[in-house]
Amino acid sequence: MSTRSKRIIYSEADCHTLVDIIISHKNIIECKKTDATTWKEKITAWAKIADIYNATTMEPRTAEQLRCKYDNLKKEVRKLEAHKRQALYQTGGGVSEPDIKDTLQQALEEDILFDNLPKETVAEQKNDIFKNSESEVKENEMLTETKKDPEIKKNWSDYTPKMLRSKRHRVLQVKRKATDHQSEDDKQNLKRKLMEEEAQRNKEYHIARMEREAEIHKYKIENIRLQNAKLQLEIELLKKQL
C-alpha cells in the first residue's frame, strides 16, 4: 500500500510572513544566473529564510517546503493576472482601474515578479492588461477631444454606466512621490532587521533553556546517587545488627 505525503497547509498569515522574508532576499532568490556560485548563494539564502521563518511560527518548515510554497504562490498570481486580462477584454474596452490586490499578491507582483526584469519587459507586462482598451480610448479622444485633460462634467442628469470607465481628470490623479520607493526599501530593511533580531533572541532563549534542563538533569542524577548510597549504608548497618 503506497503512502501519501501529508499535505502542508499555510495560513494567510504564514504566506504574508514568507513573502516579507523573501522580499529582503529577492536579489539572490530571483537572480537569473545559473552558475555554481549563484546556486550555492540561493541554497544559503533559502536556509536563512527557513531559519527566520521558523523562528516566527509554531510549525517549522524546511527550506525546500518554503521554496515550493513560494513557487506555487507565484503561479497563483500569474493565473489571477491572466484571468483579469481575459475579463477586461470581454468588457468591450474602456479605461479600467485594476482591482485592489491582496497584500500578498501586491508584494509578489511588484516587488518580486517584476523587480529583476528589464525595464522594457516590466512596462510591457504591467501595461499588457490595458493595452487594447487604452488604444481604443486614445483613438476616440483624437476624434472627439482637443483638450489634453477630459472635461469635468458638472451635470450628471444624463449619467450612464460607461462614464465610470472614463479616464480620470489630471486634478483627481494621485501622484506618487519620488521618495516612496526609498521609504519602502527602508521599511523592508527595518522589517528584515527586526526579524533577524527576533530569530537571534529565540535562538539564545532556546540555548539557555537547554542548558538549564541539562543542569536540572545533572542535579537529579546526583540526588539519585546520594539516595542509593544512603540506602546501601542502611543495609550494611542492618546486616551488622543481625
Automatic annotation (TrEMBL):
The keyword Coiled coil applies. It holds the Pfam family Myb_DNA-bind_5. Keywords: Coiled coil, Transcription, Transcription regulation. Residues 63-90, 180-241 form a coiled coil. It comes from the Eukaryota. InterPro entries: Myb_DNA-bind_5. Residues 10-79 form the Myb/SANT-like DNA-binding domain. The keyword Transcription applies. Self-associates forming complexes of several hundred monomers. Involved in transvection phenomena (= synapsis-dependent gene expression), where the synaptic pairing of chromosomes carrying genes with which zeste interacts influences the expression of these genes. Zeste binds to DNA and stimulates transcription from a nearby promoter. This is Regulatory protein zeste. The lineage of its organism: Eukaryota, Metazoa, Ecdysozoa, Arthropoda, Hexapoda.
